Amino acid sequence: MTNFFEEFLIWVKKIFGFSELIEEDEIIQPEPEIFIEENNNMKKVSLHFGICRFDKDYYGPDNDLRGCENDAKYAEKLARQKGFETHLFLSEQATYQTYIDFLKKMADELVAGDTFFFSISCHGTFQEYMENGGEKRKTALCLHDRIVWDFETKELLMQFKEGVKVIWVADCCHARDNFKTLNPNRKGIPKFLDINNIKNEELSVKVVKSEEEFEEQSEMKCSVIAFTSSTEQQVSYDLESFIDGRPLGLFTASMEKILNSPVNQKLSYFQLYKKITQQIVKADYAQTPQLQTVNGRKDKIAHREFLL
Fold first, then answer.
1. Which CATH number applies to 4-302?
2. pTM across the whole model
3. Would the pLDDT of 112 be above 90?
4. Which H or E run includes 147?
5. How is the chain split into domains, by residue range?
6. Could you give the angle at which helices 250-259 and 68-81 cross, rounded to 10 degrees?
7. What would the pLDDT profile of 254-290 be if each residue is shown by its tens digit?
């Protein structure tokens, strides 16, 4: 069985194709020309999903979360401040068909130089299967009315044109081992649903695509900067704001606390990633954010100002 880091890399490759994790000792000091100036002709569109309530006919009862809608509202606020045309969908609005249709629309409309920012806060899940004598895993986001598998997301992103930049921020779980040993007295709620407990029986017979089928598709043409709130083997926690106590995910609450400081208004992706990680460590939760890049020099991408 592979360790959690190896399995997380497999998940990244499934969705984004080849990707590079950004490590601190690999990052060079930024130079002024690394930061990218905005072009007024470039289109900037964002989509934000925050799901606190889940369809009981599909998932079964007692799966609601507290802070996901606030997570989405905060991400949408950041996007507006950076000049994005924003689209916000909360709980019952954040459906599978809305997700599919919006990403297809963006793939069709956006061209080289444009930016698409997607944020999502919800439950996550996974399903394991055997292939060629080995254990494999597929992961999914839990939208309001059904799950969307990693291979479905990858197929949508494969349609984006070359030169389009995708910023991907996910505050949810792709978890396995850690949820088995959670301390029930902790304040945070794990944002994880066990696939075996989801009420809809159709999932158990859904056809699983193999890694070979993924490899048969052409390479992704767009570039991606991806923030995820934890590794594949960890849960992400539904907690509260460090500023005013309203329900927020731990990852989003950490981001809010950091960006609330005037001295942190122009952090690079990498600087923000490191500060979020440090804040989560300080809060004493076993949750390790990840930063990945696809189709771009990671030293330059990592030192761009966040959301530019």
1. 3.40.50.1460
2. 0.76
3. yes
4. strand 147-149
5. 4-302
6. 30
7. 999 999 999 999 998 889 989 998 998 888 887 888 8
